[in-house]
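In this section we walk through a basic example: taking a raw amino acid sequence and producing a predicted 3D structure, encoded as discrete structure tokens. The instruction is simple. Fold the sequence below.
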Amino acid sequence: MRIRPRQQLLDLWRSHLETSYRDGVWVWGGRDGSNSICDAEQLMCLLYPATELSSFALDPERIATADDVAAVVSVLGEDLRIGEFLVEVIEQFFDRYTDAEGEPIFAGGSYFRDVGQGAPTEEQRALDVVDSYSMSLSLCIAVLRFVRGLQRYLGGEVRLQAGRLGKRIEALTPRVQSRLTAAMMGLIRSFVIHTPHFSSPAGQEILTLVNQTGSAFKDVITDFSGTLERIRVQARNDIRSLQTPDTDLRDDNLLFECGWSWSIDGRSAPRGELDTRIASQPGVAVSEPYLYFTLVALDGVKDLYSQRTQEPDLLEGEQLALAESLKRRAELTQRYWSTISRFGTGRWPLEDLPWRTSDGKQSDYYSLVVTSFLIQDMLDRESTTDLPRTVAVLTQLAQRARITNREIPEDPAATLHYPGITLTLKGSQDVGDGPMMGYHVADFTTLLLKRCLQAARLARDVETREQLLDLAASAMEHMQERSVTRGRSSGLWDNLAPTDHAAEPAPSWFLTERMMESLVVAHNTFSRPPVATASMVNSATGRISEADHLLNQEFLEIGDTAYSPRRKELEAIEQSLDRARAIAAKRPHTAESLAADALLRLNALAYAREDATR
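The resulting token sequence is shown next.
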């Protein structure tokens, strides 16, 4: 299946508006009901492409030059009405998820699940979750960029409508900034460093994972400490600002791992410098990193920093310090998991499928998450050293998840896609009289799709790039089989069992938002120049050189004053070779084709001259 990101994003928008915009009213929620994460995902499906891709921008000036985008969003109105309506929808979101005291709400709500111990209580459903912090961070960045685009347009407008909209944006912006600050603080307080003793069950799991050569544990502990010493030093510096007790990274008898728990760490001290609920509320989550929540937190921080690079004045006041604190934690975490995934001198722990977490859980999903950390680290370092082995892991995971292999009846791999893996949220059982809560994650295929497309940017040879794009195409085909095919939500995505036959199936905004992200990544990947290896460039240069030499010989055969069809042909060939020479470094095969065409034309001229002399 061919991936066509522009057309597929437009199709997604068309289906999205058919589902969400009914009779002039925005309809919130999907298959999983409505909560602070789901509704943010629903909004992000529109706002993220609109702010990440210039050709999808929704301010009136740029819509006017993109007929296909204008046709899709025309259901919202024309010109400024589109921006005005979206501002109204954004206001609704902030009304829904702001409490009576003006504090942002980050509750997991209907995304919290029963794991066989009973349904979560209302008090538990009101608990904050890292997914909401991260999604809100990305949403707030997108909203700020969107309203800034409208403000730039309104700067030249004098109509009364524009004046009203400008005032609404001015009133909305502080609310966005307030939620952004709270989301950043929530992510900081949810960051954890877990330091189990090497003899504890968690310590033994970590040692078994990294010991791929069967070495004595004392040797593995020594290697572990030596390999991660610089990361320990960086972590010790962050510990001071975390003010987390019972964590000693100087003790060589303690192993460690870092990342994000599912909510605010139960051991984290309040942050008194900010007068917000997030800064002062007690935490409930265990001080152990969850791979899924670590991944979504890192994605949110990446969004923050990619947008900061484009608009340096996006953050204000204390947000700058919070952003720097988040960046340090993100860099520490990414470096840790990238190092652990390739620990040792033999087989990587990542290659020993499936990945095992320190609490004894194992799943191919965890392997894919850790692979994602490694790919992002390679992208940041622009390193291709470990890309072939990483591609081999992705290929194995696609086979094991039955994305490239045929699924058999009652295949256990099917549970990766439905219902997905269930995370047990440790510490949630201590809230009120409720049970242990769970959290379902079913985005294996979209995660594979996104990471293959990202890794394709690194490929420096055609074979590796094609291998990654083939995997991405298989993942896209797998997702198409899971799309909604009936009702107004046709074209969006769900993760329901194949036996579901509801007349009007509602979309899963969790999965649809992940598909949207993947298509944006595909758009950015395909926007880059194609692979141009040294051998390809040398081959093109060789043909250009030969053609150029023969062209010079042909010019010797005609006089300076002669202006004939033969001279016109030689000048056309010269222009073609100039074009080939200009693009040879970036598009060598195209340049080679131009040179080959020039050689054929030059040969025809030479043959004609020789024939005439005979």
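Looking at the output, two observations stand out. The longest strand covers residues 421-425. Residues 160-190 form the longest helix (31 residues). In the next section we compare this with other chains.
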